[in-house]
Each structure stands twice: as C-alpha cells, then as structure tokens.
C-alpha cells in the first residue's frame, strides 16, 4: 500500500494522515458493485456518498489522502495562510482606525504554518475514510487501474462495476524551464510544508494560485517577484479586474514582471525573458502556479475503452465517457477546476448514471472566486464569454466606494457589475471585486440558476448596511437610463 508522508511530522499532519489514509487500513476482498468511484477527493466523495445514500452498493478508491487536493494541498491550507496574512495586514492599518502599535506587527511564520496545518487536520476530519464508510461507501486505498470495461484492480483486489465515475482530480503543471529540477521548486503540494519564511520568493504564474500566494507571502514579510507570460494578472477574468489587482499588488510592494517568460532556473536565480530583454531574479524559494492537468495517466483507461482528450477524460454533455457505463467528474474531465465544480459534476454524474436523469452539464451555473484582497468573483455570462458565444448583454455597474458599509469598513476598493440578456432583463452574469466577493456572489448564482429578472433582485430587501447591498443598488439601475451596452 502507498505510504503517505506530510512534512513536518507533527501532531497535525499525523492526524491528517490517520484520517485520510490510515496506515493500518485493510482493503476488502473486492466483489461486485453498483458503482465504483475512482478518487476520494471532493468529487469522488460526493459521488460515492450520494450513491450510497440512494441505496446503491458503492466502492470508492483513493491512492493518496481522502479529501483530495482541496483539503490537503489547496483550498483549506491556502485560505488558512491567506487569513493569517490578512490579519497581519489589518494590524498594519491601525492609523486608519484610530490606534497605533509600538512597532510594526512581527510575523511568527512557524506559528502561522502550525495554524495552517491545524486547520487542514480539522477540515480533513470531514472527509476522512471513516466518514465515507459511515455514509455507506466501501473504501479501498491504493493504486487503482482499469482491467476491463467493467472492472478495476486496487492493490490486487478486483472490483467489478455496473457503473463507474472517474474523479481522480488534477496535478500541478511543471513548465519546461531549463535547469528546473524536482525538489528545487514549490507547487501547491509542497508550499504548505514550509517551516521558515522565504526571504525572497519568486512566483511563476498570474492565475489564482500565483496571485493569492504572492500577496499572502508578501504580507507575511517575503520579498516577492511575480512573473507572468500574459501581460495581465488573472488573465481569464475581465481585464478591469486584472488592472485593479495589479495596482493593489504594486501598492503592497510585489514586483511584477508581466509579459515575461521564465527560461532558466537554478542556484537560486531565475532568468526571465520579456519586453526589452532579460531579467535575473534571485530567490530563496521558487513557486510554480502554472496551471493544472488531469490526473488520469496511470489508470490504464485503454483497458476500459475510455478516450482521453488533451485536457483530460473525454466526456459528452452528460459527462459520460466513450464507455457508456463510465462517467467522469471534476478536474479529471471538467474545464472549470474548482472544488464546487467537482461536487456539482459528481452529483450530475450520479443522477445521469444511476437515476437516468439525462441532464446536460451546461445547466450548471458555476461561479468562481480568487481569494486575493480584494477578492475577485465571476459567474455566468461576462463580456468575454458573451462575445465568444455571440450573445448580446447589457451591463449595470457600481463602485464599492458608493456602498456605505464598504467605505465604513475601509474596503471600498472594488466594483460590481451585473450582466443581463439584452431585451429581456434576465440576469445572465456578474463580476464582483470586493473584500468578501466569495461570500456575496452566490446571490447572483441563485438568480442566474433560476432565470430571475433584474427586477426580482431590485425588489429583494437587503440588510443595511451591508456590502451585499451593491447588488440591489445595481439592480435598481434597471429602470434608469444608465445601462451600458456591451458589444457582442
């Protein structure tokens, strides 16, 4: 069986391992199942427990830690680190709120990371092996591979299935940089093992991971350089978003190298090529935030007749693979690689595979949020996506500085935009940049899912004073001549 190690070997990591991959676990002998789920991350756990709750005999397999990337190497530890960094930053803003410290706040990085590991161990308790078993899924730990169109093998145990779901998640992409050797760089899977704050951190990548951790480490005291081949931060969001975050990062002292490509690394120095020539950046730690790839290479998918595309398992609009009895959920097949997307697609797989729901994935309305400060959230049709799909939309916008709670809290940097389908007023999408955008975007997700008109949002009573009022105030503009046409 696979041996799981987390560094440092402290009480928190020992607890995480006991919960997610007990060293004394003994797999069952195998057998016949209504459903076999490959992967014990958010998508796999959701698929397995949903099916078991419906009365099906279910097996779930996991090679590493249940809870997957999100709990162990992604969402949970990164947000714990970001919260510590925000606390340090807030303490440095005392003059704005009428208090002074005798000295600038000093970061105890060892204590910060101890808390990160403790939060991870608490979170992983909800995704533990015993939790899945208690919910009715039979858990098998170890490497899983297909041996036939209706069978997998786990550590010598044969599991035959009527239906299966591939939910094996994704791995970090390591770019082809000359001199870059394993063990000499950090990814999301190793950065949370740090016990000492790197004095100089170089981050490659301007997506969510790169931006979140660049800001967090800068606030904790590192000198940070961020390199991005795209000329903007968060290049998949609306351009105004990236520009606002750029200004904030520069104010906080993050050195940005936009339009640069890392070409050589080693001996604590990175060479980057970009506009006007090359830059050599010294570092004590190098963090890669260069995207993710589906983790499906070692499943022997050919034996199951499952086709693989460039971005992962190939599925149709119902999330069914080329084998009609095998479905795929989450990062293994879905372009939106978020935990909540994995959960949603897993539930859809079960509905389609076991209940005959025949529901297409396009019905899912999936928001996303990047947890910088301010946070960036988007959902539905934004101008970029609307142009690609040839859909006409209208935009209604308001700056957070015009919302009382935002400027009272000293969090007025940001804005909200609601997009509606031209001619109908139906809410189609939203962009929100705000200190708590991730907490606020769900109201718009609900509206889009239920095809609500802007008038419904305008007529919804909101607590005063709250930052969420931004949505109602934007909606009230629907009756005003302030609508901005968006090209398509």
From TrEMBL:
InterPro entries in the cross-refs: FAD/NAD-bd_sf, FAD/NAD-binding_dom, FAD/NAD-linked_Rdtase_dimer_sf, Pyr_nuc-diS_OxRdtase, Pyr_nucl-diS_OxRdtase_dimer
The organism of origin for this protein: Dactylosporangium fulvum
Pfam families per record: Pyr_redox_2, Pyr_redox_dim
Keywords: FAD, Flavoprotein
Name listed for the protein in its UniProt record: FAD-dependent oxidoreductase
Cofactors: FAD
Domain of life: Bacteria
Signal peptide start and end residues: none
Pyridine nucleotide-disulphide oxidoreductase dimerisation domain sequence ranges: 366-473
Similarity comment: Belongs to the class-I pyridine nucleotide-disulfide oxidoreductase family.
Domain called FAD/NAD(P)-binding: residue spans: 33-345
């Amino acid at each position: 069986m696979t041996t799981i190690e987390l560094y440092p070997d402290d009480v928190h990591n020992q607890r995480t391992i006991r919960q997610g991959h007990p060293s004394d676990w003994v797999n069952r002998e195998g057998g016949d199942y209504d459903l076999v789920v490959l992967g014990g991350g958010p998508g796999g756990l959701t698929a397995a427990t949903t099916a078991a709750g419906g009365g099906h005999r279910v097996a779930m397999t996991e090679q590493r830690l249940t809870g997957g990337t999100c709990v162990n190497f992604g969402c949970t530890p990164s947000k714990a680190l970001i919260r510590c960094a925000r606390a340090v930053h807030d303490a440095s803003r005392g003059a704005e709120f009428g208090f002074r410290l005798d000295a600038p706040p000093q970061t105890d990085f060892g204590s910060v990371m101890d808390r990160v590991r403790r939060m991870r161990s608490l979170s992983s308790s909800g995704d533990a092996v015993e939790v899945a078993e208690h919910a009715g899924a039979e858990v098998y730990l170890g490497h899983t591979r297909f041996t036939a169109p209706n069978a997998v093998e786990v550590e010598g145990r044969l599991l035959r299935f009527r239906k299966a779901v591939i939910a094996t998640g994704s791995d970090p992409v390591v770019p082809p940089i000359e001199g870059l050797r394993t063990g000499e760089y950090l990814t999301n899977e190793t950065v949370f093992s740090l016990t000492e704050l790197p004095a100089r951190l170089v981050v490659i990548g301007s997506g969510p991971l790169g931006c979140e951790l660049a800001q967090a480490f800068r606030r904790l005291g590192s000198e940070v350089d961020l390199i991005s081949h795209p000329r903007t931060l968060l290049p998949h969001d609306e351009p105004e978003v990236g520009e606002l975050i750029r200004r904030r990062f520069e104010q906080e002292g993050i050195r940005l190298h936009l339009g640069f490509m890392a070409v050589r690394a080693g001996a604590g120095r990175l060479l980057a090529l970009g506009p006007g020539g090359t830059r050599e950046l010294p570092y004590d730690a190098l963090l890669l935030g260069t995207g993710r790839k589906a983790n499906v290479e070692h499943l022997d998918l050919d034996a199951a007749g499952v086709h693989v595309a460039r971005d992962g398992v190939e599925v149709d609009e119902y999330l069914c693979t080329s084998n009609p009895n095998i479905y795929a959920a989450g990062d293994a097949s879905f372009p939106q690689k978020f935990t909540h997307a994995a959960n949603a697609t897993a539930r859809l797989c079960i509905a389609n595979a076991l209940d005959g729901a025949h529901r297409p994935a396009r019905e899912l309305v999936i928001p996303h949020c990047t947890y910088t400060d301010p946070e960036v959230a988007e959902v539905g049709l934004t101008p970029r996506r609307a142009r690609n799909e040839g859909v006409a939309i209208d935009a209604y916008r308001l700056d957070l500085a015009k919302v009382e709670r935002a400027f009272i809290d000293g969090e007025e940097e940001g804005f909200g935009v609601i997009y509606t389908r031209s001619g109908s007023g139906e809410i189609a999408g939203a962009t929100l940049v705000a200190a708590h955008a991730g907490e606020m975007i769900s109201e718009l997700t609900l509206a889009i899912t239920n095809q609500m008109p802007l008038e419904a949002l305008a007529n919804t009573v909101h607590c005063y004073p709250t930052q969420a009022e931004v949505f109602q105030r934007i909606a009230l503009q629907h009756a005003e001549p302030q609508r901005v046409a968006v090209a398509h």
